[in-house]
Design a protein that fits this description.
Blueprint (H helix, E strand, L loop, with lengths): L15 E6 L2 E5 L7 E4 L4 E5 L3 H10 L4 E4 L22 H12 L3 E5 L6 H12 L3 E5 L2 H12 L8 E5 L2 E2 L4 E5 H11 L5 E5 L10 H6 L4 E6 L9 H7 L3 E4 L2 H6 L5 E9 L3 H20 L8 H8 L3 H18 L2 H13 L5 E4 L3 H11 L3 E2 L5 H12 L5 E4 L14 E4 L6 H9 L11 E9 L4 H8 L1 H7 L2
Parallel strand pairs: 1-5, 6-12, 6-13, 7-10, 7-11, 8-10, 11-12, 14-19, 15-17, 15-18, 16-17, 18-19
Antiparallel strand pairs: 1-2, 2-4, 3-4, 8-9
Helix pairs in contact: 2-3, 9-11, 10-11
Length: 473
Amino acid sequence: MKKHRLYFIYKKIEITRLTFDKGTILIKGPFNTPYSVFDPRINGYRALGLDYSNIINYLRKNEIEYEDRVPNYLIAIHKGHYNSNSIGKLRDYQSEALTKWRINNMKGCIVLPTGAGKTIIALHAILRTNTSTLIIVPTLNLMEQWFESISSMVREKDQIGKLGGGFEEVKSITITTYDSAYLKSSYLGNKFEFLIFDEVHHLGSDKYSLIGEQFISPFRLGLTATIEREDDKHINIFRLIGNIVYKKDFYELSQQKHLARFNLKKIKVSMLPHEISRYNRTIYEYKQLLRESKIYYPLKLEKLIIMSASNVNLRKALLLRNEALDIALNSQAKIKELEKILETHQSEKIIIFTVHTKLAYNISNRFLIPVITNKTKNEERNEILEKFRKSHYRVIVTTKVLDEGTDVPDANMGVILSGTGSKREFIQRLGRLLRPKQETENLANLIEIISSDTSEVFTSSKRNKAIRKVHGG
């Protein structure tokens, strides 16, 4: 009997394979997705890490067989190793914010004023997700503050890491800076399931947006007091994190006594005669140079800087503009008015704000007041703030360095000697005064000292729009 042999030819069935590569997802196989683009270097398709969840949903919805080698999440801290009682209970509005974020698939931004307890909401979000978490902050000082907050609720401290400022610890819960996250995102992008962006308005910049794009993390939380950016790039944030899921302003919270009530007072002072003469002469020369360059309309600083790169007259105009602003902001008349305020309010805890480092040191030397600038070392800054907290110091003077990223102890009065037109800067300074106080003194005072008949009047009006919006004006 003749035997017949049956030959079966097996053809290997190709499936779509997903792998992580330097902040992107490589897609190889018979199918790709609408979220990817062809990369001729690998003869395959590549997508942003940001689109990982969308890609998985697309493949499942279309019943496409795939192999997923993308996630490499760090092992989460065991639930039993959390000490949840240490972080306290949420207030009503904080609980509402967390709920809104949770039902939005644990994505989105929470906008609350300084002192409203955004950090405690984030700590409860960490407990809720119970997964590997990366917390991204703007400053090393704020990185330390977050580390202390996380340490208070985690029993095993070796599960918490710091990345940046000389630290290279990647743990289940890691705190890092925007700069370090930017440099490491292509490596870290598939290691954390949950991202928390503190002061999330930073993420909107072209540089830091890369962080949000290179991480595959499905859970994302953005925290800030003021999400809008002057350059309108906060639109990037919504793409990378999600929309605003909860928002309350400081006026609402102060009405509900969660924050201190506040008064805003403007004091306009006339510059000294020689200052007025210098200011007017400088402004005249500035406008004359603009006219010679055939510019007859108000020119924004950013545009003037760009145009001055190729125009000698506009370079001179830029210098004159800065000189005029310097005269107005640093008028001796302001110092005399400040002296009156310090004498009148000797029982108040006061923070004096200025954008000029030189002026901050002049005030410090004249009134023997501790000063904090970008030149102040961390140890000295912490010591000054601690003594201010304990009322060993009643008054401190600072530049923009305390506008964000530092936990400033309670003060009940602020004096703005100089500032920009930024609404964010103004709200952050006001926020330094609005932490809840004793009922009998539940009132914060913010005083602006402005040189009259100068561009500073317009600048003050511009930043005060934040207040007028809140009051419905």
